[in-house]
Every structure is written in structure tokens, then in C-alpha cells.
Write a structure and sequence with these properties.
By secondary structure, this protein is α/β, with parallel strands linked by helices. The protein has two domains: 316 residues, Rossmann fold, CATH 3.40.50.1820; 217 residues, Alpha/Beta hydrolase fold, catalytic domain (Rossmann fold), CATH 3.40.50.1820. Helix content is 35%, strand content 15%. It is built from 19 helices and 16 strands. β1 and β2 form a beta hairpin. The radius of gyration is 24 Å and the shape is globular. The termini are far apart.
Amino acid sequence: MFSEDRASQVYLFLLLTIAEQSTQSSVSETLLGLESSRPIVNTPLGCFRGLVAPDGNYSMFLGIPYARVDPDNVFGPPMPHKFEGIFEAVDDTSRCPQIEEFNQTITGTLDCLHVNIYVPNSASIHNPLPVMIHIFGGAYKFGFAGRYVYGPRFLVRHDVIFITFNYRVGPYGFMCLKTSKLPGNQGLKDQVLALRWIKESIRYFGGDNSKITIAGNSAGAQSVDLHQYFLQEPLYNRVILQSGVALSRPLHSDPDPYAPIKLANQLKYTTNNIDDALSFLNKVEPHTLIAATRDSGVFVGPCVEKQFENVNNYITKYPADLNTITRRDVDVLIGITNDEGYAMISLIKKDKFESQDYVSKTLENDFDFRNKSKLSNEIKKIVRLFYYGDDVQRADNRRPEMNVFADFLFHSPIFRTVRKYLESGVNNTYFYMFSFCGERNYYKDLWNVPYTEGGAVHADELGYLFDVSFMKERLREEDMLIVDRMTELWTNFAKYGNPTPKPSKLIPLQWPRVTQDKLPYLEINTELRLCSRPMHERISFLDLLYRDIGHYLRASAISKE
């Protein structure tokens, strides 16, 4: 399938290295004389010419459109993408419209529904390799699939095909209305289209479409879990959920059904008609609409859709109201970091921190106590006593707030999800806790939190799975040990459904599965430790709390109105 002309490959590598800082057009011009050395894959959906990777024994097929946004309905279902001739799969820089997380600049275009495929040289139709797909996080507001964050080098060396893709975020992906034209969750439906495209096409790249693992972190993990509830097609076989599940908070609140009118008004277009507002917004330049969404404070996000006949509905009920999941025939790897809330709480300025009541805010986000003020006050008192004892909120000791934040937003939803999986018959489940702190801890680096402070925070493990572009020189021996361990565990799971099929020098243990009676977990650090029931006192407290007042959960209350 791939060219064996190594001299040409080396030559191409040198040219690509020189061209990396040039414009894309100059890269394309440079490649014109070297087409014979570049990998080409023919599929029923198109012919794609990629690149030889400059940093390993693999090929890259970048920016392949799996669909295109309908210019007449930019908030609705995408259209199929047709190719003529050979598609030059050389550019992974596209992003859907958003405010990106690094410099808070508005960026992106609607030509963004692209997939990136990284194929080890060992792959072929006769030697198909397992496939790992990563769905990026970003609160459904930002994120993109390029190598700037999701460099594939650490994973593909383990003989797996690695894939990322873009999906619409913000108003273009999660405008949820009570109309048949725009019921909502289009970003999740984009994901389904991408998964369908991969399932259909990946064998032509040398992938085994019977061994597809979908993974995600934070909102990406929540997306994976939502597919577990609502996706009817068998488009994957294994899932990896990193610090996020469907029971986490973003799905608890209904997005604003009048969002189009408010956004149009923000842009000086006055109307009280939703269809009229949508028609206007459809023609607005994307960066302008992203800015208007930010400035108006309009909330967009995943929602429970109002159902209409002959309409492609996806999320039809709140996961909290469902007793079982749809996809039970999957293997599951799920886990947390040991200090999920440290960075988010530690960075709040002192005056703002001291003006907040974090217990009240957290409970009011999760529960609906309308006309139950006495009960609300009693519950808040109980939660404060548990987390604070006789102490009061202090800016110089934020540990209680960090624990409240992490337990309600991450830990409790994740442990309740593990229980629901087991009760649904998902028997092959592994639980981990990532606790290593080093120079590649992703969110600590992004938020300028010294890696020696606190534990591993939310999304810190990303730097040990991916060859993040701005971490390329961070190669301390301890950090690279964690890279080697994480990628071996994750790719073993993708290959075998078991992260430790047999002990190795790098991972000298066998990781037991979760059962109805026991919750063993692997703590990932320089020393690997097998433990049981992390944070058991806090989780037991929340289990009792949710058991007694779970019927007041905001999602359940909304669904019963």
C-alpha cells in the first residue's frame, strides 16, 4: 500500500522540515515533484495522497473532509463530500469557528469537518491494525484535531492506527431549539458521521474495523459516553473515558430556546421570529457570530431534543433518567486524575473566591429545590459540615472547594456511571487514577501552575499520551517513563480489550477488572500501584446524598415538567 522508496522518503522529510514554517501553498508546490514517494490510498469514498511522517515510521493523511457544512443551513446536518481526482491530504490546521483556548482569539472556518489518519508502515489490508480514535474536549465550545496538541508519534509506535477529527462546537454545533429544523446536538451528530466514515473507510488504510476504540477527555469523554447511551449503530468496540461522562453537569441545563433571537439582537438585527433570526444568522460571518455568542452570554451545549417525525433526533432523554445504556457489548477503560479541581480553584482571584458560596453554587447547578428552601438549606448545611467541618471558607486553604468541585463535577458522576455500566451488563471495565506530576502535565502547563503544586489536575494526562507540539523538548527520564507506560496501557486496551494482557518489564503487574463487589484501580505514577475504591469516604457520602435526594436532580426535574 505504501511506497518503499526510503531515499525519497528521507528527501521528502528534509523538504517538509524546511517547509514547515512556510505557507501551505508553498508546501504543496514543493511536493509536486515528489508525488511518487508519497502514500496513496484508494477508497470508495475517494483517493487520498498523504505524507510520510518526519518523526517516525508512519504515514499521515491530514484534513480529509468526511462531510461539509450546508451553506444554506450552517447550523443543521452536513452534506456528503464528493471528490474528483486525488485529494491532497496534507493539512491538519483546520478548526471549526471558536474562541481557541491558547490565546483566546477567534478563529476557524466552516470548512472544518475533517479527519486526520496516522498509519504505521506495518499496516496493510493483509495486516490490519487496531484503530484508536480520539474525540477532543473543550466544553463543546472550543477544540480541534490537529497535531498542535494531538501529535500521534507516541501511540503509532505501538502498531495502532490513530485518528482525530473535527466537529462543530459553540453555536454551530450546539444550538438547541424546540423546532424540527434545529432540534440540537449537531456537533454530536457530526461525530457520528465521522465515526461512520471511519468504520466504512479505515480498512483501505490498513485498519481493522472490528477493533475500533473511541476515546476522549472531558467533554470528549462525555461525548463518548453519550454515544454509549444513544448511538444505535455498532461503529466501535471499545471506549476510553478520561475525566468525563454523560452524567456530568453540561447536560443538566436546557440551552436557551430563544438563542437565535438574542444573537440576532446582539448583532443589531431586531426580530421576534426564530426562523427569521436563523435566516439572518446563517449569513453572518462566523467570527462575528462567535463574538456575539461570547458577548451575549447565550448558553449553547448538548441538550435533550424535542422529538419530531422524520427528524434525526439523537439525545432524547436525560442520561440520569435512563437505567441502562445502549452499547453493552463494549470494553471500557475509565478514570480520573487525583486532583481534578486543583488548577480551576487555585487560579481564582482572592476577591472573587471570597465572594462565592461554592457549596450553594454547586448544589444549585445540580439540583432543583424550587419551593423547597428549607430542604435546600438543610442539604447545604450537611454538605458544608462534611467538607469543611467547623472551618469556614478561606482563600489561604482552598482544599475544601477543590474537593467539592471535583467530587460533584467529576468523581461522583464517574463512579455512578461505572455502577450503571456494571448493572447494564458491561463486564469488562478497568478503572485508573492518574497522579503523576511532571513537566508534561497538560493543563498545569496551559494554566501556568507549577507542576510541583497539588496533584495531577483535570486533563493533565494528555501530555503523556500525545506528542504535544509545545512540549517536544520536555524529555525528562521520569516524564518519558510515564509516556511509555500510558501509551502501552492505552494501546494494549485498544488491541486486546485488556490494558495488561501479560506483565512486562514496563508494567510488571496485571490490572484487575471492576466487579459488582470490588472497585480495584491502577494508580499511574512512577510507581504503579493497585489499590481499591479511591476517595471512598467522599464517594460514599455522595452516594448517600444522591440516593436520598436524587429525584431533585435538575435534569430529572426538567424532564418531568
